[in-house]
Specification:
- The complex is a heterodimer of chains A (about 200) and B (about 600).
- By secondary structure, chain A is an alpha+beta fold.
- Chain A has a four-stranded antiparallel sheet, with helices on one face. A four-stranded antiparallel sheet of chain A has the order 6-7-5-8.
- Chain A folds into two domains: about 80 residues, ACT domain (Alpha-Beta Plaits), CATH 3.30.70; about 70 residues, ACT-like. Chain A, domain 2 (Alpha-Beta Plaits, 2-Layer Sandwich), CATH 3.30.70.1150.
- Chain A is about 25% helix and about 35% strand.
- Chain B is α/β, with parallel strands linked by helices and about 600 residues long.
- Chain B is built from 23 helices and 18 strands.
- Chain B is globular, with a radius of gyration of 25 Å.
- In chain B, α11 runs parallel beside α14.
- In chain B, the strands form three sheets. In chain B, strands 2-1-3-4-6-5 form a six-stranded parallel sheet, sandwiched between helices. In chain B, strands 9-8-7-10-11-12 form a six-stranded parallel sheet, sandwiched between helices.
- Chain B is about 40% helix and about 15% strand.
- The chains are: A alpha+beta (about 200), B alpha/beta (about 600).
- At the A-B interface, α1 and α2 of A face β5 of B.
- The complex binds thiamine diphosphate (TPP) and magnesium ion.
- Thiamine diphosphate binds next to α17 and α20 of chain B.
């Protein structure tokens, strides 16, 4: 196709007068928003694959996804997804989730008002001497708990909002961070009402 | 039955369970309770227990196809022409993978199908056993829902659920994967009234407020247009009737999508023809210039909208759909109305009458005058001169010579499909079966087979291209076996015409691999399959030959040799807007196809 460009078509590289300037914040570009969504599903085989397949198949973002059974008696699991996109895409994501047959409820916690969210990390930091002391001091400031230790390492348990967990991990990097395991975000709406 | 009990493991002989039916028998019982009369299928090791049970009963009829893809298309044709759920039965592994194209087709076009797949016994699942495939894994993205039945106790409930899911809300295909040991184990039956789905409850009743707003918008419109799709046909004949009432009450023009043809009478004056890429001039310009658009059971598909930024820019848009995920997916609408299309339309009609609403007669009159000017362009006109048959002429004559009949039409995919959509006028729903969303070449013949099974006395024609027909040509054998008098009308232009057209218009006439070389002699082929072969090459002989085809009691392959270089017009090049339509060969794109347009299919 490159061999004979369509006559009159803009040549590659030349400024295209029709294209909006890269500097303008064009009103055509809707903003990207982040949402935390809670999904109540039947705890049956394949349900997580359906949800993940929906996101990958339709090109939606997953920033975090957690799942666990929350009502063993009624075989219900709760999935918490943190995703981002334009408002139109976010509406699509919720409608598509709701369309899955084993899905009971989809709740946009971000839109529904306040919610609390937590992320838990286990952080292994190895080292001796000054760095080891510093790691323990910072852990103390962040209220991270030592859940395992040896003479040359600590395993810290840190749980808080994701951004604060991120910050703690950043600080541990120069102090000998060797391994990291995180749960991803779980979240729940504020107020007396349940899902 | 007794023989089987004797063969059962010794431990089971004293067991009261031995009195119970086995999984295969439970399955058949459930199918019969669901009102199933016909199953389209193909046997194999994993489903032998089901075939054995089928052998010993008379309530269900099994139609043996020649390829599992065809089983699904046949079930689709059956479903679309009857409004019932189509049922498919295939074996594990290759049986299931062969069904995947059909399932995807049914998903894209929202056709209710239940596909039963055999599976290796539960203890072998995951072992790469002979003819094992991860069927639920493979079909997860191409079904509305799927199930793996792991215990015989779950089988009847799962089957009833499968029918409920396939048919309710926005319909679609459902796979039930059945391990062989589950089919042989014994278990109790559960009737369908006892089964209630835990979570799936699509909203069918509209919000009354939305209904009021919708009719007010329509009543105040100066240039209204109604655009309806396959959802209206899925919602049933009553929904189509309600659509007609609304169109007549408002006096608005109506256009249909490819999937929606027949929902509103095609010969009526208020009907503007199909819209979209190969839609009519009047339909597309009415969409572009409308001030209020009512979209009913359609989904703003890219074939319909053309360039989104120029899609009906000045209209207030109302969208009626049962599937909330269809709302604001491609086009932002002003008023969504969620619910069953039939119920929404009925509510709108009732409120329109109760409130004694009327559209602005003067404005509507001006709007119609404008539309009539567009219609006067006669965008589907062509000149048939000389003895070389124009494909458009072949299809128009086929329509004119069959229109008085009890007729069902299926198609393959390509130019012939678009011409069929343009020149056939369907006055009632469920008469037109075409692969819209997936565009599956090879759909038409097996779909026609399924239609003919459901309507043995009717005239069923597959309008085909010479390339497409070869994709499921083996079904001629099925036609022969069941004496199905399907007429296959091949518009033989010796090219993959639609591909050739795009190469001509968009790829500098470099006709890469689009010539239909080494075609079979279709008349001899017909003979080989016990059908009648008719070949026509001259326009002067066309009518007589079509009549002969219609009068032939058995299956016919009609090789209609047509001009090779015709293109399908009007055409909105991909990425162009409705007003940038090309009306004929002398019309050049107003603008060169944009780079964004070139990447679109
Ligand atoms: C299974 C499948 N493969 C490829 C295509 C792409 N395709 C669309 S139309 C077409 C050509 C069809 O040729 P023919 O059946 O002769 O119909 P015509 O356009 O000539 O009327 C092709 C290859 C398709 N739609 N389906
Ligand atoms: Mg062809």
């Amino acid at each position: 196709m490159a061999s004979s460009p369509t006559p009159g078509a803009p040549t590659p590289g030349a400024p295209n007068p029709a294209a909006p300037s890269v500097y303008s914040t064009s009103p055509g570009e809707p903003p990207i928003e982040r949402r935390t969504i809670a999904v109540l599903v039947d705890n049956e085989p394949g349900v997580l694959a359906r949800v993940i397949g929906l996101f990958s198949g339709r090109g939606y973002n997953i920033e975090s996804l957690t799942v666990s059974e929350v009502d063993p008696e009624n075989h219900l699991s709760r999935i918490t997804v943190v995703t981002s996109g334009t408002p139109q895409i976010l509406e699509q994501i919720k409608a598509q989730l709701d369309r899955l047959v084993p899905v009971h409820t989809v709740r946009d916690l971000t839109l529904a008002g306040g919610f609390v969210d937590r992320d838990l990390a286990l952080v292994k930091v190895a080292g001796t001497g000054e760095k080891r002391v510093e790691a323990l001091r910072i852990a103390d400031i962040f209220k991270a708990e030592v859940v395992d230790a040896g003479l040359d390492y600590f395993v810290f348990q840190m749980h808080h909002r994701s951004d604060k967990v991120d910050r703690f991990i950043e600080l541990m990097k120069p102090l000998g961070l060797v391994e990291l395991s995180r749960t991803g975000v779980v979240a729940i709406a504020r107020g007396a009402r349940g899902l | 039955m007794t023989a089987k009990t004797e063969e059962a493991p010794a431990a089971a002989t004293q067991d009261p369970k031995s009195e119970l039916p086995n999984g295969a028998e439970l399955l058949i019982k459930a199918l019969v309770e669901q009102g199933v009369e016909v199953v389209f299928g193909y046997p194999g090791g994993a489903v032998l227990p089901i075939y054995d049970a089928l052998f010993q009963q008379n309530a269900l009829r099994h139609i043996l196809v020649r390829h599992e893809q065809a089983a699904v298309h046949a079930a689709e044709g059956y479903a679309r022409s009857t409004g019932k759920v189509g049922v498919v039965l295939v074996t594990s592994g290759p049986g299931a993978t062969n069904a995947v194209t059909g399932l995807t087709d049914a998903l894209m076009d929202s056709i209710p199908v239940v596909c039963l797949t055999g599976q290796v016994p539960t203890h072998l699942i995951g072992n790469d056993a002979f003819q094992e495939a991860d069927t639920t894994g493979i079909t997860r993205p191409c079904t509305k829902h799927n199930y793996l039945v792991k215990a015989v106790a779950d089988l009847p409930r799962t089957l009833h659920e499968a029918f409920y899911v396939a048919a309710s809300g926005r319909p679609g295909p459902v796979v039930v994967d059945l391990p062989k040991d589950v089919l042989q184990a014994k278990g109790p039956y559960l009737s369908k009234e006892k089964v209630h789905h835990r979570s799936y409850r699509p909203q069918t009743e509209p919000e009354p407020g939305a209904v009021e707003q919708a009719i007010e918008l329509l009543a105040n419109a100066k240039r209204p247009v109604i655009y309806s799709g396959g959802g209206v046909i899925n919602a049933g004949p009553a929904a189509c009737e309600a659509l007609g009432q609304l169109v007549r009450a408002t006096g608005a023009p109506i256009t249909n999508t490819l999937m929606g043809l027949g929902a509103y009478p095609g010969t009526d004056r208020q009907f503007l023809g199909m819209l979209g890429m190969h839609g009519t001039y009047e339909a597309n310009l009415a969409m572009y210039n409308a001030d209020v658009m009512l979209c009913v059971g359609a989904r703003f598909d890219d074939r319909v909208t053309g360039r989104l930024s120029d899609f009906s820019p000045g209209s207030t848009k109302i969208h009626i759909d049962i599937d909330p995920s269809s709302i604001n997916k491609n086009v932002m609408v002003d008023l969504p109305v969620i619910g069953d299309v039939g119920r929404v339309l009925a509510a709108m009609n009732a409120r329109w009458r109760e409130r004694d609403l009327a559209t602005d007669a003067k404005a509507l009159d001006a709007w119609w005058q404008q539309i009539e000017q567009w219609r006067a362009r006669d965008c589907l006109a062509f000149v048939q001169d000389g003895d070389v048959i124009k494909p458009q002429h072949a299809i128009r004559r086929l329509y004119e010579l069959t229109r008085e009949r009890d007729l069902y039409v299926t198609t393959e995919v390509g130019q012939h499909q678009m011409w069929a959509a343009q020149y056939f006028k369907f006055d009632s729903p469920n008469r037109w079966m075409t692969s819209g969303g997936l565009g599956t070449m090879g759909y038409g013949l097996p779909a026609a087979l399924g239609v003919q099974i459901a309507h043995p006395e009717s005239l069923v024609i597959d309008i085909a291209g010479e390339a497409s027909i070869l994709m499921n040509i083996q079904e001629l054998s099925t036609l022969a076996q069941y004496r199905l008098p399907v007429k296959t009308f091949i518009v033989n232009n010796q090219w993959m015409g639609m591909v050739r057209q795009w190469q001509e218009l968009l790829h500098g006439k470099r006709y890469s691999e689009s010539y239909s070389d080494s075609l079979p002699d279709f008349v001899k082929l017909a003979d080989a399959f016990g059908a009648k072969g008719i070949r026509v090459t001259k326009a002067s002989e066309l009518d007589e030959a079509i009549r002969e085809m219609i009068e032939t009691p058995g299956p016919v392959i009609f090789d209609c040799c047509v001009a090779q270089d015709e293109n399908c017009f009007p055409m909105i090049p991909s990425g162009a807007a409705h007003y940038e339509m090309l009306l004929g060969p002398n019309d050049h794109a107003a603008k060169p196809i944009s780079e964004e347009g070139m990447v679109l299919v």
